[in-house]
Amino acid sequence: KYVDLSNRGLTSVPEDIAPDVTHLYLNDNDITRIRETDFNDKYLNLADLRLQVNDITSIKSGCFKGTIIKLLNLNSNKLTSIPDLHEVSNTLTGLNLISNEITTITFDELSYLTKLTFLYLSNNHLTTLPDIAQFMPSLNKLRLKENPLDCCCSNV
């Protein structure tokens, strides 16, 4: 079941979303943060979550518990680090973090996301990157354009 709440001027995730939603589009709103209670154990079939073009600065740990998110789009927000996605580490295959304000990524922030097939990090403020290929065997698309990377890293 698709629910499209794009471009509605929302400042937070609404409480009244259908519990059987599989694809939820909350893009082009004014959402500033994702609270632990926004998705936690509410949407057991949620596989595709689009939150691009918002003003999200924080995503609480544990907020995706009970979901089966495969694709998470956080493009064009104000995140400064990779959110804690442990609850969806067994299902998440795509993560879009293009055009955020991420300056560093540590091994621990990504190492558990072993099912990712694509990771988009273009247009952030990254200067270094852990050796992603070593711990992400499924990854076949990594986008890093428009980052001030200190290159000649063997892992890029």
UniProtKB/TrEMBL annotation:
PROSITE patterns: LRR. It comes from the Eukaryota. Gene3D superfamilies: Ribonuclease Inhibitor. Signal peptide: none annotated. It holds the Pfam family LRR_8. InterPro entries: Leu-rich_rpt, Leu-rich_rpt_typical-subtyp, LRR_dom_sf, SLRP. SUPFAM superfamilies: L domain-like (SSF52058). Keywords: Leucine-rich repeat, Repeat. This is LRRCT domain-containing protein. The lineage of its organism: Eukaryota, Metazoa, Spiralia, Lophotrochozoa, Annelida.
